[in-house]
Every structure is written in structure tokens, then in C-alpha cells.
Amino acid sequence: MPLRVNEIFLSLQGESTYAGLPCVFVRLTGCNLRCSYCDTPYAYDEGRWVSQGEILDAIGAYGVRLVEITGGEPLLQSECPELASALLGRGYTVLVETNGSQDIRLLPEGCIRIVDLKCPGSGMTDRMDFQNLHRLGRRDEVKFVLRDRRDYEWAREIMRSHPMPEPGRTLLSPAHPFLCARDLAEWMLADPPPARLQVPLHRMLWPEQPRGR
């Protein structure tokens, strides 16, 4: 079955513990959330239907073994887990970034699931499936995108009260342009949380290019 694809492109992984590595991104169309700081609103509706075979061929042409399926919200398309399985079967390392509202058990074993847990500043916290924090595997990651100090304190409380990945796989990221990375770094140094600072690398490298990077 085909998937509705917004874009497929090669870039450096800008976030996650794989930051800095060349990665092929498959951005699927559609999202059920409307975060206040969303930087990919073009993925809400734009896209074309592409067969799984065409997607695999497009990925293979880049010659890179790290792939991220993202969105939008990729798990809104029922064919997403099948695509992830096909990539795993071909020996790719597969990251799937999901917005925290969908059951991550839909994804096959072997995927690295990155749960982007929405803080209050996003306006979408009430849409989160917090049971996903009990479904994490040892290689999965949780990301908090922070808009302000309130979001930081909220994330700290979630880290205290819920199961989380190991500290290196729990990520705190400033929401551009609302929070300065240096301010977040200072907060983390004042009272170190069990988390890693994540500065979006792609925004630093290509600030003038909002998509395809």
C-alpha cells in the first residue's frame, strides 16, 4: 500500500543521540496536533502518494544506512510500521519520531522510537499518551521541546514521576525562537537533570532553509 509522503531528503541528523550523522529523512504527510512552535506546518497537508517500493528505491539511492521516518505524525498512516519493517529487513538503522499521542507499540521491534513528549507551552499536553513512557525499549528516546521555564519545570517533574530512558537518551531541546539554548544550559547546570541538552544542529547549519534539511 502507498504512503502519503511530504518529502524524502538527505541531511545530517540534527537531533536525537544520532545527531551529526548523515541520515535519510522520510517525512510523511499529516499531523493530529498543532503545536505552538511547529516548524513543519507544510507537512500537515502537502504530499503525494508513493509506493513502498519507490520509497525504498529513493532511500537506497543515497547510500546511507541511517533512516528517520518523521512527520507530521508518521503513525497516523497505518502503512508506516510496514515501511519500518521493510527498512529493518534491508539492514537499515531506523529511527521513528512520533509526537507522543500514538501508541508506539504499533512499531516493529528493532526501531528506535523517539517520543516527542509535548510540554505545556506546545498547547498539546492533553493529547499525550503517557502510557508510552511504560512502553519504551532500551534504545528508545524521549525528547522534551521547551518553550520556557515552566516547560522545563514540567519536564523535570515528568522525569521524576514516570519511567524514562537512561539519561543519555532523555533529551531537552529549546523551542526556536522562544528559548535560548544558553538559558536552558544554565538551568541544567544549576540543578542537573537526568537528561542531555540537545541543540538542533540543522537549525545552526541551515537557518535560511526551513525544509529539506
Name a few traits of the molecule:
213 residues; alpha/beta; 9-stranded mixed beta sheet; 5 helices; 22% helix; 24% strand
Q: Average pLDDT, to the nearest integer?
A: 94
How would you sum up the major sheet? 9 strands, mixed
Q: How would the global form be characterised?
A: globular
Distance between the termini: 27 Å
Main sheet: strand order: 3-1-2-4-5-6-7-8-9
Number of helices: 5
* Helix-and-strand structural type: alpha/beta
Secondary structure tally: strands: 9
Percent of residues in beta strands: 15-25%
Radius of gyration: 16 Å
Question: Unreliable stretches, pLDDT < 50, 5 or more residues?
Answer: none
Order of helices and strands: EEEHEHEEEHEHEH
Helix content: 10-25%
Please describe what this structure looks like.
- The chain has 213 residues and is α/β, with parallel strands linked by helices.
- The protein has 5 helices and 9 strands, in the order βββαβαβββαβαβα.
- It has a 9-stranded mixed sheet.
- α2 (80-89) links the parallel β4 (66-70) and β5 (93-98).
- It is globular, with a radius of gyration of 16 Å.
- It starts with a strand and ends in an 8-residue tail after the last helix.
- The mean pLDDT is 94.
SSE layout and pairing:
Blueprint: E1 3-12, E2 22-28, E3 48-50, H1 52-60, E4 66-70, H2 80-89, E5 93-98, E6 112-118, E7 141-146, H3 149-161, E8 170-174, H4 181-190, E9 196-197, H5 201-205
Parallel strand pairs: 2-4, 4-5, 5-6, 6-7, 7-8, 8-9
Antiparallel strand pairs: 1-2, 1-3
